[in-house]
Amino acid sequence: MNKLIPVILAGGKGERFWPLSRKERPKQFLSLDGSGKSLLQATAERLLPLAGGWDNLWVITSALIADGVREQLPLLPEANLLVEPEGKDTAPAVAWATLEVSQRLGKEAVLGFFPADHWIGDQAAFQHTLEAATELATLEAAIVTLGIKPLYPATGYGYIEQGKEQGIFADLPVYKVTRFTEKPDQNTAESFIATGGFSWNSGMFIFRGEIMLAELAIYSPEMLSLLQEKGKAAYADLEKKSIDYVLMEKTTLAYVLPANFGWDDLGDWNAIERLLKGDNLNVELANHVGLDTTGAIIYASDNDEFIVTIGLENLVIVRDKNVTLVVDKNRTQDIKQLLQVIKSNPKFEELL
Questions:
Q1: Do 239 and 302 sit in the same domain of this protein?
Q2: What distance in Å separates the CA atoms of residue 167 and residue 57, rounded to the nearest whole number?
Q3: Which domain holds residue 145?
Q4: Do 247 and 289 share a domain, yes or no?
Q5: For residue range 128-170, what is the model confidence (pLDDT) as tens digits?
Q6: pLDDT (average), residues 106-114
Q7: Which pTM value belongs to this model?
């Protein structure tokens, strides 16, 4: 069986973790689970056994934070770091990285694409799932996506509807994908869960390079040809599009492998509560004294900061450098909208 060549997608901004996540210190550079390792470092660590070492691990990121990636992963070979001139979402990233890996290792190489900023609970189950996905991608003309078994009717994730079972790989069942759906409303999410035939879309994909390139030639020939001709110099001419939109929602070669290894995309500050709260009244990653304060997430990047609260419920309070954020936990998705307001005022440029 082919060895998996993992590619870490490390170009995101993680804006919903502002003010801790900023332009030159994005979410993937942060340690959010108390381990002391950044999300990027933890992602590389869990993928190294599957890659067989640093020589087969790749990272694609943006020019703005490439030096930060080098500092975070000093053992990553420079030739395995792909630096995009500007972020154009996941479709160009997947296409360019697939071209580069295929050129060096051959089009029959099995690639896996993994966001740099996810949390995985059970490493052994994660590796077993990827062994199954690699086996399927080696044997079949397949683009395998890992679907996460839903724990609740989430409205912040896309969903994958599974069709007929296509076989067992490494003791795990694999299904043809019936459809990908965008983030649903609450009623739709509840109906998805009730059927038992939907998974959360994890954004992780495994395939042979030749299969991905052949499908891109069908569904996005202009983007592919530009990248083949110009490499990363083509980015100025590319549209900002996701790989889901460009390919996964259209291809007939999509398979889903429902996974259950403990997963969170760490999409915003509420993820900290899911990981760390336990039986505590609040999640406290700061020196905090509270009176009648419950359901709060309290974070300070400086151990000398002291946060005091009285009579608060369900708030996120974050203190980082010269910024204090206070937001209702139900409104954390709106942090991106707030940043647009801040960006419109040059006086606040240094806060981004």
A1: no
A2: 29
A3: 4-264
A4: no
A5: 999 999 999 999 999 999 999 999 998 888 999 999 999 999 9
A6: 96
A7: 0.93
